């Protein structure tokens, strides 16, 4: 019998870090609802939440308590097991993507060097795409289990939309992989620290990825799956209490993780200033790691603001416009970007 040696200290530090990332994701998702309402109020020249706590800062807690206290309703004609599984799966897949994102450089604590990344796998991008592909099952299962035609229509819209825009997103990333030569997110950040941020060498690829990220997160102008004026809420029309809360939280967590992925792939991740060697500042390893993590979160907050700004300024597409943009617009554009990138790489090698 072969006994495998287990580094329990490593298991403990990874467990604590996983708990920390989950907590941060939930807090960001909770206060993203507050930020969205405040940004919408500013754009529409009104105040927004301002009653619960100073400046309305306790409003997300009040909303969360309201969802917990609401009556739990499961339609009698629904598939009860799948009705519960749908929002649970949506929440789980939203959280799983964060496992391969490098949140910062290494820190030294208690004589150990701790990586601020849960798992630095060499196929990080493939992992992200695999989890993204599973995310649609949470929507489809919940929509089908509701036994409601509007929910089913919203689920079908979400599935076809995600399949359509994942193609363009994947092709845009192929061009990036040609340049970096790696599928590891950690390796991509290190390359950007030593050279240019990828957004400079792949501006068209970043634009395609950004548009597809809006579609993957079901955010306006791609929120056809839950269009209130057409489908009375779409795939989560029959859900109430925290089942509805899970779907809403999953959307905001997806927005947070998508922002982190974009910042990592195209904006240097935890790299603080482009074209500059931060080691010249002379700070300790831990201080530099904290500054890098703070820089990453600033980039993430910028992208979250962009998601919200677009929602309150651009109207929703019709469904035929949504499909035309995906199949006739973004996919040919991403193929063009990939071919041009390959040609440039071959030319530079000569």
From TrEMBL:
The keyword Aminoacyl-tRNA synthetase is annotated on this UniProt entry: no
Family assignment from sequence similarity: Belongs to the complex I subunit 1 family.
EC number: 7.1.1.-
Name of the protein: NADH-quinone oxidoreductase subunit H
Native source organism of the sequence: Lacibacter luteus
Function: NDH-1 shuttles electrons from NADH, via FMN and iron-sulfur (Fe-S) centers, to quinones in the respiratory chain. The immediate electron acceptor for the enzyme in this species is believed to be ubiquinone. Couples the redox reaction to proton translocation (for every two electrons transferred, four hydrogen ions are translocated across the cytoplasmic membrane), and thus conserves the redox energy in a proton gradient. This subunit may bind ubiquinone.
Record keyword Glycoprotein present: no
Stored InterPro entries: NADH_UbQ_OxRdtase_su1/FPO, NADH_UbQ_OxRdtase_su1_CS
Subunit structure: NDH-1 is composed of 14 different subunits. Subunits NuoA, H, J, K, L, M, N constitute the membrane sector of the complex.
Record key words, sorted: Cell membrane, Membrane, NAD, Oxidoreductase, Quinone, Translocase, Transmembrane, Transmembrane helix, Ubiquinone
PROSITE patterns: COMPLEX1_ND1_1, COMPLEX1_ND1_2
Annotated catalysed reactions: a quinone + NADH + 5 H(+)(in) = a quinol + NAD(+) + 4 H(+)(out)
Class of this enzyme: translocase
GO biological process per UniProt: aerobic respiration
A Gene Ontology term for the protein's cellular component: plasma membrane
Gene, per the UniProt record: nuoH
PANTHER family found in the cross-reference section: NADH DEHYDROGENASE SUBUNIT 1, NADH-UBIQUINONE OXIDOREDUCTASE CHAIN 1
